[in-house]
Amino acid sequence: MDFIPGLPDDVARQCLIRVSYEKFSTIAAVCRVWKSEVEDPDFFRQRKTAGYTRPVFAMAQARVRVTAGSWFSDGLPMFCQLVGVESELVVVGGWDPDTWEISSSVFIYNFLSATWRRGADMPGARRSFFGCAASGLERVVYVAGGHDGEKNALKSALVYDVAKDEWAPLPDMARERDECKGVFHRGKFHVIGGYCTEMQGRFERSAEAFDFANWEWDKAEEDFLEDSTCPRTCVDGGDMGMYMCHAGEVVALQDSRWQTVDKLPAEIRHTAYMTTWQGKLLVIGCRSFGDAHVAYMLDLKSHRWRKLVAPEEFCGHVQSGCCLEI
Q: Would you place residue 205 in the very low, low, confident or very high pLDDT band (cuts 50, 70, 90)?
């Protein structure tokens, strides 16, 4: 069967890769040939190579809802982690919003087919407030640290293969890291900051990075952060290093030093979420606790901020988020 009657298959594919991602589920419903095409990983790669992918930001807001069965009836688990793997959104862990019990659940949303599926649960002790990051090239998700149900900080780490739906252990980190931040940067899984059980909320400045070539953790970098602060805004900046918000400023890690990039807008004094993509930086936060959240975008070349207008229902507190290229 031809992709599009009367057109060569290569021309028909060029037509399909130009379609907006919101229409992929409609395309998949037309016939089995089109469905097979848009769900093929090579379709995404061709679309990216041709320059037709678009950045999509997925964020989890703080909204408590009751549960129904194994899925959360009107929302995601509280404090879950969101990571993007190619055209799929992976939702890892969190708290059951009805019982507040720690969940080991994994759910995956496919933007091409507009469908959810259940993944294999995280093995081992149930953990929350862990570091989490993804490597899109290998289609895997990394988890490290956090704490168990008894508030004991953890130093164990895991890797999840999205395609195989399989978890595997990584070697333990050198130290426990509760409320750490996971960042996949320059081919390594970095676990930044956090604190051990005895410290309880007093963040440390160190970071560890997992070297996949040698299958071991590099020696901890003791002074990775300038101050003992929560590392949740640390993000990968590609060739530009890492970025984070600190003391009312956006700072970048370049040549092993944190350097000021620009001041944050006056409306953002408490940063809830930050991410980067294609020379831009998105920051979401508020002036005071309890205020509606606002979003600003910074062009990293011109250093100009632009406020983004969001509907009222999307101005809640952002607990986790990620950027996907679809």
A: very high
